[in-house]
Specification:
12 helices, 38 strands, globular, binds (2R,3S,4R,5S)-2-(hydroxymethyl)piperidine-3,4,5-triol
Length: 721
């Protein structure tokens, strides 16, 4: 074993090392894990943080020299003197919720174990895991804190399992996946709030004493708040200054909280939202928490993003399975619900001629689903639309020279559906109360095994042998009146989390049942744009907003925590296809921010536009490698000004792709864009203009002037000579 994770018995100290960081846990009195250090690798640690404060209780045996209220704790539990927000609260038979978990042993292993039923980061040859076991003698619970170290991405993944080793039942009322106490508070918090159509607008605010909560209680991670957030030195720049990044590999209700206490220390907590969660553990049962991830860098928020991008690409996202990411033509904005076999075959023919790889048939193809009033849940082929069956239609499409993908929304049911008429108790609902609709639909109880069986059987009957290459998995409403007919009253607190486990179970089934088909996740645009979905899919629909100006803001925000490879982008009919060359180029360059696709009626395009699209796709082929897998550098913020400038670089700096996207007109001014990824000793040539520049010049600053116009794209692709 390497020295990635070590334990020193004399110091009672665990050290977790990544390529650029060190994380140290000390066992106080051999019993209580304290957060000792998280930062750049150092040889000498500063003294442990400790202050005494009036009104802070202390365990009598230690005296005022030690209080849970003023230490930096590795995993604080409720009620034992730490007055800050806890990471865990377990209610045992005494009903108090107080626990006192004490270290009882540890294990260090190469690799990692899967987390049963949950997505988790795949290990590589250098991944190592530390498990610390703790016990609370009164409740009889055994807590295992898990740290999985990914050295090359500077990421540590954290989770826990809680086993009820007592003879009676206990209730887990709160269990955060990660707690990090940091002995300072002079941070800016960057996080990603939003709404439908305006997801993940990066927002920054200084911390001060008190709590700041970022959460979802909607049943999914939501458009409204992303689980990603970061803390950085006040005044840190994009590429310098100390910064910590956090995220959760989970797709349901989450809570992230940053608390600054009386001592100006900062507590970071993230995990399942305790407001909508409790979990009963009968004797011998185990609860497994989702995994949270954290990274540290002294190279600013830009490096936080790059660490997480690499981590998601290497350890979370499911490879798409094709030799390259397909350029899709999605039918939604072209036809909406007007699915028609002959029309779609024509779409496929036109798509093939444009260089598009895959036709994706969106909503409206199944059962009685001709609009959004009916049909969800009835996942069988519609013979009115496809007289010879779905398989024959798919063969006709493929004969035009494209692959074929299909839209599904497995978690939902319309009251006007055969499924609902047969099983009205299969949706989430509280007996005797109204069943609130949203987009005319109710939510299936994905925690009910009968529902999962029905979905698997029905999808299997409709899809097996049809030759599908791609699924677009949608989710178009949030959860309310959450109650499950498959759970007793004292387990209803589990319904939200069991719902998410059911979604993962079904997603895993799709992955296994159709191993050659790629999956794109979606939730009314970017409503479930989280790391939890990534192990099941290769990309996620970023937003239903395809207006390119607005999209720059959504995409730039999304890239704070999520890689370009997952950020599905379309040039759409609605806003983007115009004869105006400048605007057409702008809209396409924006859509080249992630996997490129189109969402339009290809039969209605002029020859000129078709020629443009052919050229766009050909050029995308030259850029896809660097955009999807290169390192991303933010240069300006489109929320703060007229321009969104950014650069992708291949990791060896052999190629740099610079985009300058001007959103709105402004009095012309010069932007000096410092491309710090450039190799200072190299000479580069721009593939578009032939311009020769040195790497040092690019690092010092490449000057670009804005103009009195809107929707203007300028791009350079520098190749080392
Ligand atoms: C919402 C999605 O975001 C759209 O792309 C489309 O698939 C519709 N749902 C279909 O109902």
């Amino acid at each position: 074993m390497s020295d990635t994770i070590t334990y020193s018995a004399s110091e009672k100290r665990f050290c977790l090392r990544t390529d650029s960081t060190l994380y140290v846990i000390d066992l106080y009195d051999g019993k209580y894990p304290l957060q000792r250090y998280y930062g750049p690798a150092v040889d000498t640690l500063p003294d442990a943080f400790h202050v005494y404060r009036a009104f802070s209780p202390y365990p009598t045996e230690y005296g005022p020299g030690f209080s849970f209220d003023t230490i930096l704790s590795e995993y604080p539990t409720f009620g034992n003197g730490d007055m800050r927000h806890e990471a865990m609260r377990v209610k045992g038979p005494d009903g108090s919720g107080v626990t006192d978990f004490v270290f009882i042993g540890f294990k260090i292993d190469a690799g990692r174990e899967p987390i049963p039923g949950l997505p988790y980061a795949r290990p590589d040859a250098d991944t190592e895991t530390l498990e610390m076991h703790m016990e609370d003698p009164v409740t009889g619970c055994v807590l295992t804190l898990r740290y999985v170290v990914f050295p090359h991405e500077d990421v540590i993944a954290r989770s826990y399992s809680l086993r009820n080793a007592s003879g009676g039942s206990v209730v887990l009322e709160n269990g955060m996946s990660l707690c990090l106490d940091i002995p300072r508070a002079d941070f800016d918090l960057t996080y990603l709030p939003g709404t439908y159509g305006s997801e993940r607008f990066n927002t920054k605010r200084p911390l001060s004493q008190g709590c700041f909560l970022m959460d979802s209680r909607r049943g999914s991670s939501s458009h409204h708040m992303s689980p990603f957030f970061a803390l950085s030195d006040r005044g840190a720049s994009e590429e310098s200054g100390r910064a910590y990044g956090f995220n959760l590999v989970y797709s349901g209700n989450f809570r992230s909280m940053v608390e600054v206490d009386q001592n100006q220390t900062t507590r970071v907590l993230t995990g399942i939202n305790p407001d909508t969660f409790s979990w009963k553990l009968a004797p011998g049962e185990v609860f497994h928490a989702p995994e949270a991830v954290m990274t540290y860098t002294d190279k600013g928020l830009g490096q936080v993003s790059r660490n997480f991008h690499r981590f998601a690409n290497r350890h979370l996202a499911r490879p798409c399975g094709f030799e390259r990411r397909p350029v899709v033509l999605n039918t939604w904005e072209g036809t909406f619900f007007n699915i028609n076999e002959d029309r779609l075959v024509k779409y496929a023919k036109e798509a093939a001629a444009l260089g598009i790889d895959m036709l994706v048939m969106d909503d409206g193809w199944f059962g009685t689903r001709r609009n959004d009033l009916a049909g969800l849940g009835d996942w069988w082929e519609c013979r009115d639309l496809f007289p010879d069956g779905l398989g024959a239609f798919v063969s006709r499409v493929k004969a035009q020279g494209v692959r074929f993908g299909i839209w599904i929304e497995p978690e939902m049911v319309n009251p006007d559906s055969d499924l609902y008429r047969a099983h009205p108790d299969w949706c989430l609902h509280v007996p005797g109360r109204r069943r609130s609709e949203s987009r005319n639909q109710l939510v299936l109880d994905m925690g009910n095994p009968d529902v999962l069986d029905y979905l698997k059987t029905t999808f299997s009957k409709t899809f097996d042998g049809v030759g599908l290459d791609y699924f677009k998995w949608d989710m178009n409403r949030h959860l309310c009146e959450v109650w499950s007919s498959s759970l007793p009253a004292d387990r209803q607190g589990e319904a939200y989390h069991r719902y998410v486990l059911g979604v993962y179970d079904l997603a895993d089934w799709f992955r296994t049942q159709y191993p050659d088909a790629m999956i794109e996740m979606c939730s009314g645009g970017g409503g479930r744009y989280d790391l939890g979905m990534l192990p099941y899919c290769s990309q996620i629909w970023t937003s239903d907003t395809t207006d390119a100006v607005h999209r720059t803001k959504i995409q730039s925000g999304s890239l704070y925590g999520y890689p370009a490879s997952m950020m599905s982008c379309h040039v759409s009919n609605h806003y983007n296809v115009v004869e105006d060359e400048q605007r057409m180029e702008f809209r396409w360059r924006v859509a080249m921010g992630g996997p490129l696709g189109y969402e339009l009626d290809p039969t209605s395009l002029s020859d000129k536009v078709k020629e443009t699209i052919r050229a766009q796709i050909a050029e995308w082929r030259n850029c896809e490698q660097i955009v999807l897998w290169g390192d991303y550098y933010r240069l300006t913020d489109p929320l703060a000004g007229a321009v969104y400038a950014y650069c992708h670089a291949l990791p060896d700096a052999g190629e740099l792709y610079l985009n300058f996207l001007q959103l709105v007109p402004e009095e012309p001014k010069t932007y000096v864009l410092k491309l710090i990824a450039a190799d200072p000793d190299a000479v580069y040539k721009d593939r578009y203009t032939g311009l020769i520049v040195t790497g040092q010049q690019l690092r010092d600053g490449f000057a670009v002037r804005s103009e009195r116009t809107d929707q203007l794209a300028k791009a350079w692709y520098f190749v080392r000579q």
